[in-house]
Amino acid sequence: MNVLGKAIAITAEAFKDKTDRGGKPYMLHCLFVMNQMPHGDQELQAAAVMHDLLEDTHLEKHNLKNMGFPDRVVELVARMTHDPDVTYQVYLDGIAGWPDACRIKLADLRHNSDITRLKGLRQKDFKRLEKYQRAYTQLTEALKNSY
Fold it and tell me: Which residues contact residue 122 at a Cβ distance below 8 angstroms, ignoring those fewer than 6 apart?
């Protein structure tokens, strides 16, 4: 199986019973993020589809290595993982230095900021959207400056 097929299969299995805030299968979010990446770059797409895998499942970085994923994919997925012991700003700063990580996180933020995916808006949703907007601005600037 190719790297992208394997990434999709593993992610689908890991999130088979999970739904998003709107009650839709969580895998649809993962596929959305993947589909925002250049289709000629299967490693980048693989990392994008697995972007929440380490954060939201029992899998760890070494598991992805043992499954045979290339170092680039493993490092990008690890970079996308927000360690709860690290502030969100430090997490974003770590992403900002990696153009491919910026691309994945920007796609993730765009989809997570889509209020039509929610069943309703509460005050905490507005606060989260403000946080996402600040992150989006920072990472857009970082990506622009990487060229």
Answer: none
